[in-house]
Sequence to fold (369 residues):
Amino acid sequence: MSAARSTLASHLLRAWQTRGPTAWALRPLAALYGALLRLRRWRYQCGHLRSVKLPVPVLVVGNVVVGGTGKTPTVAALVQHLQARGWRPGIVSRGYGASGAGDAVHAVSLAQPQPHDGDEPRLLARLTGVPVWVGRNRVAAASALLQRHPEINLIVSDDGMQHWPLARDLTIVVFDERGAGNGWLLPAGLLREPWPTPPFGDSTMLVLRNLRHNATHPGVAPLYSPYPVFVAWRQLADHAIDRHGSRQPLQHWAPPPGSSAPPALAALAGIAQPEVFFDMLRAQGLVLQHTMALPDHASDAELLSALTAGCTWLCTEKDAVKLFPLLAQRPGAPEVWAVPLQQNPEPGFFAAVDACLEKLSSAHGRQTT
Fold:
């Protein structure tokens, strides 16, 4: 079942880059989806639906395309920058598979993770160390976070682009090499909403393109934007980390010069675009004897069943958040190492964020330095 889902997802991602037969066949559904989006936006514009303004600035990091564009490393890098600038940020996120009645929200705890924390919120909590709250209603999650942590003076909403109940001051739209694809709405194209889209409410909008730092990567799709566009280079770290926190250089698994028998090395990824991870490992000179592309947010059972014996496995940090606690309960499980993803935005990106926040500071009662 997981292989079939991955195959279908890969087929759609390829189809959404061109206006081929598959995309054209799905155009009627895309037209219906577009009509529903316009109706929803009109209801907010007319006041039938309202956004809630929080007492602190709100930064939304999201995208208008499906698939992994690098939102999680963007949120982590942004929060770390904000901390260095003297802000005290907190994070809100939906939490994949969130359940419970209505607006139920909860804090992410690394000591006692809950089943519906979500992979990304747990990873963000580990990478940043700031309070992370999850819930389908981001307004309720942010309000609960601020009540529990009154020292927080800025909220970063992870993947909140289409969550209009939460008013925002700055929206950062993240794209990758695919750009806007064929320019059509779901399910005929990549777009969750039309692009370019007007900023929601009175917010400022910036665009960040996450591109692979790899000279062998093919050309990047063009992207039209009426908003400032910045580039962030993403690449894998030169090391991997196991569940005990030990580090190992990636070159440890590279084939020795002249060797015809490379180490038994495999890789798995339960992300939106698994092949991107595999390609980045190969770009580091690693020879993967086996790869396992799993669905985004793969289940515990899917992750464990992918780990065949006889190989050392490499995975993403997102997979490791879920996989490492499972391995601790399975003596004799294969050796698994997580490879961190590093993101380096150009300096102008953070300068633009700072400039926007300087304008917001006095309105929210914060003294700037």
In short: The chain has two domains: 9-235+344-361, 238-339. The first helix runs from residue 2 to 15. The domain at 9-235+344-361 is CATH 3.40.50.300 (Rossmann fold).
